[in-house]
Design goal:
Rossmann fold; formyl-coa transferase, domain 3; 2 domains; seven-stranded mixed beta sheet; 14 strands; 16% strand
């Protein structure tokens, strides 16, 4: 592996999404991430359909670039094997319910005695402190409790709508990876490990920066606005002759430039639209007037006009259309790996680029227990010890 985190070893005791997102971010940036699965594997292996040649597409997306082993942490041999792996590790990621790792004898206080420099990252539903610390959490629950669902959808009084993507899961994973990277930087300077604790709830709350700013200032909770923006207008989707287009006239210069491109300069003389504040106040009327114009041309025609005029605009793409977009391809956001069973598998690339230490995706998701022998051997286990663990069921290997 290449990347700025080359040399960092991560033990991932995480399943489904938030923890594995943290692991894949670190792996994509060069860390050696060893995914430790339970006997029946990560639950995402059973998120089917769809499959590719019988392999879960969801699992392969979340676990590329990782090596995979299987240990039964309810056995003494499994626990001891993990502790031996921890001795040479920099990071451990886990997203079990509160108290689970302690019951296994693998909590932070225990493992820091094995490795004082260990960075122990916990990703949970609500964090390890506070009145909800004992609760389990899912993306849907976090989106609802964070206020996100109250600002998502078509408008006040409509059925609650969550963000289509599991944003609290994904954001929690990214935030966890950021916290781990910061703790790792401190460890390189001081040798000191520490606990890193984040949650889906907190991750979802960070998505409310604009709406929270409004609520702090006014004492009122913003409502859902469809595709519109609470602080700028026009900044939303508009219907075209054959689809939809997003237009971001988010300041006075872009507003005036947009009007010129739409041949609608007369709207600039209308006191209802003379400033961003008045445009926000009269957003619905403005949107109706602009839609009368945008429906006269196709999306592609408008995109060409706005690009030439320097006004930010973009189509509303489907997921498969995004996969084929030349910019997504040029930025290496759509990449392929070769899986031993599924063959060529496409995946999403690393969203940050490094000029001197480029990261990337070079390894497919592991088969269940694919690297058990390799990893245990590197940790100092003899072939006889490994065979004994495999025979007893304390470990599982795919070979």
């Amino acid at each position: 592996m290449s990347g700025p985190l080359q040399g960092c070893r991560v033990i991932e005791l995480a399943h489904i999404m938030a923890g594995p997102v943290a692991g894949l971010m670190l792996a994509d940036m060069g860390a050696d991430v060893i995914k430790v699965e339970k006997l029946n594997g990560d639950d995402t292996r059973r998120f089917v359909p769809p499959t590719i040649e019988g392999e879960s597409a969801a699992f392969m997306m979340m676990n590329r670039n990782k090596r995979g082993i299987v240990l039964d942490l309810k056995t003494d041999d499994g626990k001891n094997a993990l502790k031996r792996l921890i001795k040479d590790a920099d990071v451990l990621i886990e997203n079990y319910r509160m108290g689970t790792m302690e019951k296994l004898g693998l909590g932070y206080e225990t493992l820091r005695e094995v490795n004082p420099g260990l960075i122990y990252c916990e990703v949970s539903g609500f964090g390890r402190t506070g009145p909800y610390a004992h609760r389990g959490g899912f993306d849907l629950i976090a989106q609802g409790m964070s206020g996100l669902m109250s600002i998502t959808g078509e408008g006040h009084g409509r059925e609650p709508v969550k963000v289509g993507a599991p944003v609290s899961d994904i954001t929690a994973g990214i935030v966890a990876a950021m916290g781990i990277a910061a703790a790792y930087a401190n460890k390189l300077k001081t040798g000191q490990g520490q606990k890193v604790d984040t949650s889906l709830f907190e991750a979802a709350i960070t998505q409310t920066y604009w709406q929270s700013a409004i609520a702090f200032a006014t004492g009122k909770s913003p409502q859902a606005m469809g595709s519109a923006h609470p602080l700028n207008a026009p900044y939303q989707s508009f219907k075209t002759k054959d689809g939809w287009i997003n237009i971001g006239a988010a300041n006075q210069k872009n507003w005036e430039a947009m009007l010129a491109l739409l041949n609608a300069e007369h709207l600039n003389d209308d006191p209802r639209f003379s400033s961003n504040a008045t445009r926000i106040e009269n957003r619905e009327v403005l949107a109706d007037l602009l839609s009368e114009i945008t429906t006269q041309k196709s999306t592609d025609e408008w995109l060409q006009i706005f690009e030439k005029g320097g006004v930010p605009a973009g189509p509303v793409l489907s997921i498969t259309e995004m996969h084929a977009d030349p910019q997504a391809i040029a930025r290496e956001m759509i990449v392929s790996t070769t899986h031993p069973v599924a063959g060529e598998v496409k995946t999403i690339g690393l969203p940050v680029k490094f000029s001197e230490t480029p990261g990337g995706i070079t390894r497919p998701a592991p088969l269940k227990g694919e690297h058990t022998r390799e990893v245990l051997s590197q940790a100092g286990f003899s072939n006889d010890e490994i065979d004994t663990m495999l025979t007893s069921g304390a470990a599982v290997s795919s070979d």
